[in-house]
Amino acid sequence: MSFAEIPWFEALRLMIDINLKGALICLFALLIIGALRRSSASLRNQIWVGTLIALLALPLLSLIVPEYGLSLFPDPRFWSYEEPVPISDAELQALLAEDGLIGPQIPGSMDLDISKPFWLSMSLPHFIVLIWTVGLMMMAAWLIASDLQLRRIMRKAVPTDRSWQDLLTKLSRTMGLERNVYLLRSPHIRAGITLGVFRPVVIFPIDAEEWSDSRRRLVLSHELAHIKRWDSLIEILAGLVMVLYWFNPLVWYAVKHLRIERERDCDNVVLNIGAKPSDYAMQLMEIAADYSKTPVPAFQSTRISQGSNLKDRLLFILDPSVERQGKSRRSTMSVVLIVVALALPLSAFGFWDSVEPAKVPLTETKMKSEELKEKTKSKSDKQRNSAAWRVGESIYADGLDAGKRTFKALKSEPKGKIYFKESEFNQLGYEFLGKQMIDEALTVFKINVALYPEAWNVYDSMGEAYVHKGEYALASKFYQRSLTLGSQVEKQAKMILKRLQKAIESESVTWSPDDIIVRDMKWDETKSGEASSSTSPQHTKID
């Protein structure tokens, strides 16, 4: 699939869907946490974990769960439109040649160069999806690069001494941790960092061998609490959420507070196994002093680390009113399921308006052919000098083929005897169009195009005729050509082009011309030099 063939509008709908619904999930989690602000950090951490899981499940559920539209916003497919390519001279030549109205060359016509750079021809939905995709790729690249850098540090790290291993064995037994943990030291690490999900590794600074027994016990206890809670896996989920929702501020807020509650929860574990709050706070202050010596590498800033949120953690550790007991596995699963369950019904609701157009019946203006013939017989000799009137009379009297023959015969008449006027042919075409004589109207408009190939109004009229015929793609080409030639109803033509795109996209919907043609906009006839607009609601006959 080429770059231009990407399903932009479906991607845009999914992007907006998951971000709006993701914001609602985050707001729901905030309300719960606000109501439980005096509860333990463990419970609040579990709520944020459930929020992460719900955010990750939301895109998949949005794709597979049947959607029930709430019709809150217009469908993104119709925010903008793909600018159609104007009809080329080659296509125009072929259309006019079908009726034998032109020779081998359209006089005075030339192909228009409408080529544009890709970024200038992009519509708004294209641009939004492109920006979102670029941001997603940059965020993913940053997280991957950070992980690779940390793994490079891990490969070059050296093992700790035997005393660290003895302490690890003792603390693992105390905390009920059954997984094997590897302890390493590195000159590139400023504080304890935990890596790995199934083979967890804790990396300490290179001078960790000089730490006191108390500091060793407190720091290692905190890192083992991360490992017991599978926080490395949670951090991977947080990274995926940040990639998918990279420009959603509520998601960034949720991830930030997940990390805050995660550190508080692990600090509570350290205090619950016998550490004094004052001693633990003093050790954190020493870590803060080490951190202040040199800047922390950016790739370590969001990792599971002893050095994160130190000020907040100190206040939390020294607050005697804080509930420090962790929650059971059953309560954890209950909270996660409650938050995740929110994503299922939420994913079933869509925000987009239906593409079904409002139906406006056409005004019935058909007349009996006998009446039409009688009206044409009452014209004066002066009117018979009008080529448009003669062609119309011939069509009314003897049919479309007779009108074509009349036009070709009039073209060979001596100059001055018969006059050709763009506005009169335009009026005649709309006269036929108002009577639902679509083929006759198209032929007259083609005659006008052959006579006046550089006039924007003739292409605008052709576009409307093809709308009535139901050939929307061809209609859009004629409207676009009128714009490139300086249409004086530019706003109106662009509105019609958007509606044409909607009609083309909605193949299963029956459209009438009144669903597409703008009837409530008028333009100044004095600017165009023409007698009637191509969008006049009344189709007046030539007098």
Q: Please state roughly what percent of the residues sit in beta strands, choosing from under 5%, 5-15%, 15-25%, 25-35%, 35-45% or over 45%.
A: under 5%
Question: Helical segment tally?
Answer: 21
Task: Enumerate the spans where pLDDT stays under 50 for 5 or more consecutive residues.
Answer: 1-6, 104-119, 355-373, 376-380, 520-543
The strand count comes to: 6
Q: What is the total domain count?
A: 2
**What structural category do the secondary elements indicate?**
mainly alpha
Helical content (DSSP H or I, runs of 4+): 55-70%
Along the chain, the helix and strand elements come as HHEHHHEHEEEHHHHHHEHHHHHHHHH
Radius of gyration: 37 Å
Shape: rod-shaped
Amino- and carboxy-terminal Cα gap: 57 Å
Strand count, sense and barrel status of the largest sheet are:
4 strands, mixed
